[in-house]
Structure formats: C-alpha cells, structure tokens
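In practice, a research group might receive sequence data for several interacting partners and want a quick structural hypothesis before committing to experiments. The following worked case mirrors that situation: the sequences arrive first, and a predicted assembly follows.
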Amino acid sequence: VLSSTSSSKSIFIKRAVGAFVAISVVYSLFIVVAQLEPGAGLNQWQENRIRIQTYLYARTPYRCVILGSSMGTRIPASALDSNDINLSLSGDNALTGAEIVKRAGHFPRCLIVELNATLNRQLNTELVAQQTEGIAHFFRKYMPMVREGYQPIVLLGSALKKKTSVGVKPDQVAANFNEHLDSRKAIETKVLPAEEWAETLAALDERLSFLQAQGVRVFLFDLPRHPDLVYSVQGQAVQATAHARFKGRFEWIESDPDLAYQTEDGQHLTTSSGLKFAHYLMQQVDQKLGEFSSRN
Amino acid sequence: MLFNSSEFLVLLGITFALYYTRALRSFQMAILLVSSLVFYGFHQPWLLTLLLFSIFVNAVASYRVYYGEPSRRLSWATLGVCVNLGLLIFFKYSGLLYRTFAQGASGPVSQFLNSIPLPIGISFFTFQGISLVVDTYRMKKSGRELFTIHRSFASHLFTIAFFKSFFPQLVSGPIVKAHEFLPQIKLKSMCDIHWGLVFRQVVVGYFLKMVVADQLQDQTFWITPSFFQNCSSLTLVTLLFGYSMQIFADFAGYSLIALGTAGLFSYRLPDNFNYPYISRSFSEFWTRWHISLSTFLKQYLYFPLGGNRHGELRTYFNLAMVMVLGGLWHGATWSYAVWGCWHGLLLVLERAFGANDSSKDESRILTFLRMVFVFSMVTVGWLLFKLPNFSDAISFVKSVFMNFSVPHQKMLIFNVMIFSIPVIGYHAWYLLKSATSVKVPSWCEAAVYGALLFFILTSTGEPGAFIYFQF
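A structural hypothesis for the assembly, expressed as tokens:
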C-alpha cells in the first residue's frame, strides 16, 4: 500500500511539473509568434523595471533615450517614435537611468536628460544590480516570458487599458494640491549643502561623459513645474550648479516659452500637459539632430 | 535569511543533501542545527548570542524541572518563564516603555532604552521556550510522559538547541510547542518524506507569497499616509480589502513554506491557517487564523487565567485580556494593543449575544452574511497593522467617508481585485468541497499545480520581507 501511494504521489508531481513545462513552452511560443510588446506595469515600481528591461533586451538600439524621474514619466510613450524610449524612473532620477544605459552595452544616438531637484537622490544600486546582474538577468535575457512586461497579468491589464478608457488618466489636480505644493515648497526653500548635489552630479557627469565618448549626444532639459517651485531656492540652485558643471560640454534644450502647463501637485504634469511637453521636447531634439519633424 | 531568497535555496539544497547522506545519518540533528544557526545569523551574526542564551536558559530550566527536587519544580518553571518574558520585554518593549513614559527625557538610560534593536523571531522563540518549560512542568505534575528528557544535560542541551533553532519555524513560526515537536525527534530517512504534501505546501506557499502578497504589496502601498487622501472612497475600501488579502497570503504563504520545508526533513509542524476568511464567528476566526498563536494563548494564558470557568464577567475579562496581550505580542506600539482590544471586544460582544456558536445549522444566506460580517470586521482591524499611527488610521477612515466625489482609480481597483482572486478562490474552493462531494481528477489537480508553478516563474512581484518578520 505504501509503495503504491508513494508511486501515485510521484506521478502527481511528475504530472504537475509536466503541466508546468507545457504551459511555459506554449506561453513562450505565444509571445514570440504573436510578437507581443511588453505591457505597462501595474504600479510605478514595476513600470520602472519594465522600462529598464525593455531597454536592456531591445533587439535593435534605440535612437533617443529620455532619462529622468517620476516627473519625466509624464512624457507619454505615445508621443515618441517607436525607436525612442522613455527611461525615466519614478522614485529615482536620471543618474540611475544613465547607469543602466552605460551597463547595457548598446548605446542610443542621443540621451535626453532631465535635470531638477531630484538630482540629490543617490544612484539606486540595488535596482541597477537586480536588473543587470545575476542569474535572473541571464534568464530574462534569453527567456522573454520571465520579463516583467510579459507577465500574463501585465499583458491582460494592458489589453484592458487599450480596449477601454480604464487606463487613461484624466487631467486631474490632486484633491490636496495646495498641501502638496506647500510641502514641496517647504522642502525646496532649504538650501542643500553643496556636497549633497556634488556627489550625484559628479556621478552623472561621469556616466554622461562616458556615453558621450561612445558617440552619444547628450541633451539636458528641465520639465515645466509650478512657478513657485521653478523659482524656489533649490530650483535655482540646481540650475546654477548644473549650468556651472555642464555648460559647454552638453547641449541644452531651452524651456518652452509657452508657460501654459498644468501640474497635478505642483511637480507632475497632467496627462494633456505631459503630451504637450513631449511634442515640444521631441521637436527640439529632432531639430538638433537635424531630422525633419512631423510633430505638431 | 528569507525563504524567497536565493541564498536560502542554496542552504536548503546543501542541508537536504547532507541530511540524507547515509554516511552522515547519525549527524542529522547536528546538520540541521548548524544550518539553522547559519539561517538565523546569516545577515546579523550577533543575533546568535541571544538565541544561544535563550537556548541555554530554557535547557537549564526544563532540565531542573524534570530532574530537580519536586519541591523546587515550580520555582524553576517560574524562573524559566520569567527569563523568557524578561528577554521579550527587554528587547521588544523597552522602546515602547521609553516612548510612553520617558519621551523627551535625555540621559544615557533613555538613549539606551530607545536604541535597543528588535532581534528577528524573538517573539516566536521565547514563546517556544515558555512552552518547553511549562510543558515539562505540567508533564511532571500530571505524571503523563509526553516526551522524555535526556539524563545527560549535554544531550538535553543539544536537543533543546535543535528544537528551538529548527530553521523552518525559527523566525515566524508556526509556534511549535515542546509536546508537539520533541516526540518527533529520531533518525529519519527519505522514505519518511510525504512528497505529495510537501510539494503542495511549498508550491501553494510560494504562490501565495510571491505572486499574491508581493504583487498586492505594491498596490496597497497607496494606503500610506497622505497618498490615501487622494483616493476615492471605493478605492480606499478596495485597498483595505486588498491588504486583508495580502496579509493572509503573506503569512499563510510563509507558514505553508515552513511546513513544506520542515516536511523535507520529515518533521511535521502544526497547521497555522485553516481558511480563516470563511469564519462565521470571531471565536471561529481565532481557531482558523494563526492557529499556533491562538492555541498557545489558550493553553498558556487563557486557561491559567481561569478560562470560562468563573462566570460570565470573568470570562469576558479573560477574553479581553488575552486578546490585548496577544495584540501587544505582535508589536511594540499601542495600536497593536488597540487591535487586540478590538478583537477582544468582538469576542465579548459575540459571546454576550450568544452568537459565538458557529456550528448551528443556518440558511446559506445567513451563513454567507455572517462570513461577510466577520471578514469585514477583521479587515477593519487590519487597518491598525497597516497604519500603526492612530491619527493616520483615523484620517484614513475619514477619507473613506469624505472622498465620494473623488474619481475612482479604476486600474488600482482592477489590480487589487485580480490579485485577490486566488485568495477568494482558495477559500471558495474549500467551501465548495465541504458542501458538496465534488472530486477533482488527479490530472486536473496536477494541471492546476503546474499553472501555479508557471505563475511563480512568470508573475512574482518585487520580493518583500514577510509582514510577520517584524513581530
């Protein structure tokens, strides 16, 4: 009795593992045959990882890569050419994105780098290591189905977003807009010690210089924010410090003279303003690259 | 070391291989003991000193209770319990006492009290120590031998070190009582492994933790103060529902992995969860949720306090007291005590209204409504786990009642509901199986487990620490 019981248990495990292998093979084939694009993340951290993985495992190099923070994520992919990518990372800044580009081993034609008060954030070494090192990176490279953008639930969510208006974020100002703005103003009124910027700026400089040496053109820009923040102590300090460090070495994209941008919370552009700024930004980049722009 | 880390898988593989090597068979306990110490001290080796001290104290106390003079048994047992509680109070509650009574005070003592770190798993291994000392005392008093204690103190110390540090249950339980574990200690062979059960426990455990809890954790993040103020009432209720699902998936998942891992070494740990969200009463809930803790509190606190043997009022008091202390066991903030009070109050009211008997035959609708009510009240209580700061919890509740006009975050609601489906399905399937004689063909069950493995491979969230690690 004991041996027949253990034999049936062993058959059960074999069947389960067999089913697992069969489902995995079918799913892998489905991704390849249907030429599925990675879906959008279910939360901002997953979106970060999907952006990174999309960049790392691209079959052909991208033309332009936007690097930035959560503010930069408001530049929608729909406003970019298919060979451009937005690698802005919520909760991080351009430095972490630049490190990813450096480690990827394949370089774009140009980098469009957001500069603002988030530049006092350190390099996210944990995220970079998690995405570019180890056995998980190896598997992701050769097995698309284990990339986050191909998670069944992510693809389902993206399909739902496309078919309905569920995923379209309306132009919405935060219920506690003034509270957000005031708290941000309070933060940005403080003068940060120079060394807090210096370390990150030096690290960013090192990555950008390396990439420039590989033939990548580097453009710097700042996103529209609430006027109270643009002219805050920190806002001004970033401008001054970055200009002093990068002037003459990297190219600048002037701020849009049209100031009619709206933010949700003082910092992050609303959906329509994000789209509007994306058109402006990419027009400027196209002009600098000497390419004809059909954007409007 | 986390169960969902690669270093754990390496340690488990090496330990398993050595454990069942024929030539090393007589060293099985030693192999597991060394692995357990590596597991516990991997990131913070200094923690081992506390664990070893606790092992030594409990070994001495239990040995003295067993072999010492009968007149001194009670003193040794009391000493053992006091040292265990003393360790717990010192490491876990010094900060709380400081914040409550000496906030703002300066000086070396205040600074010291405020800086004491919380060693991981202390709440679990001190309770285990208490069970060892008390079980030994009760055993000697009743004359019923539930387990034996080696005549040689060195062997006894080694056995207790093995019992207390056994890594599958060391940091987050289940809280294994001495009388449940010590009788299982013997030489094991691979034939003793219940492979089918171990496979199911490990697969479901990792699925609940890595796919459900870790994915929900990134959705319920928005319950964080200030962010939740921008969410609609419906979104907030959904998020709280999602947190209820998450905490179950996280802890039940952990417990199943612990059971499965212990099963790989042919040890059986007690079940910790039994479909808690289908409970029809709060007393039933506490027989289904964190069972090892609730049975511990019942056996080592509620019964000694008198249980329900001294009239209604005293029973209410005992229930409330046990739940408040049980709440405080979870964490050193007053919000956990309030959470315990909440459950104590629910138990008392339920008993006062005679609604604590969930074995009565009722209509299906009434049964369902009772389940929904119990689940809702339990879920409201979880808010204090997520927002231990009272003002945040109150602000959250206010937002639920105020934010009717705020647009819903439809994608967030969709995500929470999608990742809650496995937990709902897990409970619903159990209900269906209990109510009908439905039988699933073996190949069909195997396909489901194959699918779970597929989701573990493709759909895990950002690896997060287990919620109960902080306790």
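Before designing any experiment, note the following. Chain B touches chain A at residues 6, 191, 194-196, 199, 203, 215, 218-219, 221, 226, 229-230, 403, 406-407, 410-411, 414-415, 418-419, 442-443, 445-447, 449-451, 453-455, 457-459, 461-462 (CB under 8 Å). Chain B has 18 helices and no strands.
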